[in-house]
User: Fold this.
Amino acid sequence: MTSSGNRSQKLGGIIRLKERWGLSWHGRLFVTSVMLLAIYAVVLNVHPFLAVTHRANAKILVVEGWIDEYAIRAGADEFKTGDYEHIITTGGPAAGSGGYTPVLELDD
Assistant:
């Protein structure tokens, strides 16, 4: 099924044989190693980037309402030790938690 005697074309020129460059197994190993090193570097450095805490002089403390109980307690401790007048919680229960986190009593 060659078309007009040209062996690099088939089906009337719809399909054409082309030479191409590709990675050898050495090249694939190198590219894979570089990608794994990049992913490793991102995993090691993403927490300090995403978990930044910038304290501001404010009278209101805002705490996410969907976080775990230990974090809610840490928010309550921050409210007690800080110079806050009000605490506000946002959000709701996490999916599958079965309900809202119990209300914590803040002693004055």
